[in-house]
Amino acid sequence: MKSSLVLFLLLCSMAGCQKREYIYINTQMTWFSAQSYCRENYVDLATITSAEENQRLVVPAVGGNVWIGLNRTVAGVKTWQWSDGESTHFFKWLPNQPDNWFSVESCVCFSSSGWNDMDCERTLPFFCSWRFVLVKEYMTWTEALDYCRTYYTGLASPISENQLSLARTATTGTQTASMWTGLRFVNGRWVSVSSTPLGSLVSLPSCPVPRYRCGARNTNTNLWENRDCDEKLNFLCY
């Protein structure tokens, strides 16, 4: 049975209130399957960037080894990197780790004692994470995309039920009724700039006029909208 434990981290930035949340998924998966699950339902496998964040995951309800997003699975890359692209500057290795036992340990698991590298094909529970940041600036869709890529990871596309629920919480206090998302009409179809499959919850015109090919979310009606890409709106980064 699948269960989850939600842990809240509240941080604030000048752009707005940034909410980082970790979700413990008590289902055994390989690292790659866990990564796919997190990307489809939240943002990515968990990133841990400080001792404080690491300590917040040490809770009685979570025991044993748990997948996090640290890995070196990209061909030809020997350095450790986070699945969501966050820079790596904090580590919490167990003594004598990482050891790359039998040269097959390219993924990292978390425990209350520290981190350990492990075979990515092992099945473990895992932590997903999300971080939606409401930016209360007025920008065009392209400007919003550039801003999010410069200061965060990208322009958010909250397209699953979980993501939409989390986005509603993050966008409390928006200054525009609609906010830009990472959806764009390209080559005859709507796509997410994060390459996440859109699924059935996204409903937008199948042939929008050229200027109205950028996707927004109305925070009052909770409906998707295609809007003029040059309109200046608040937006959601991740």
From TrEMBL:
Residue ranges of every copy of the C-type lectin domain listed in the record: 17-129, 127-238
Keywords: Disulfide bond, Signal
InterPro entries linked to this entry: C-type_lectin-like, C-type_lectin-like/link_sf, C-type_lectin_CS, CTDL_fold
Statement: the UniProt record of this protein carries the keyword Metal-binding: no
Residue ranges that the Swiss-Prot or TrEMBL entry lists as coiled coil: none
Domain of life the protein comes from: Eukaryota
Signal peptide as annotated in the record: 1-19
Pfam families: Lectin_C (PF00059)
PANTHER family in UniProt: C-TYPE LECTIN DOMAIN FAMILY 20 MEMBER A-RELATED, C-TYPE MANNOSE RECEPTOR 2-RELATED
UniProt name for this protein: C-type lectin domain-containing protein
Organism: Tachysurus vachellii (Darkbarbel catfish)
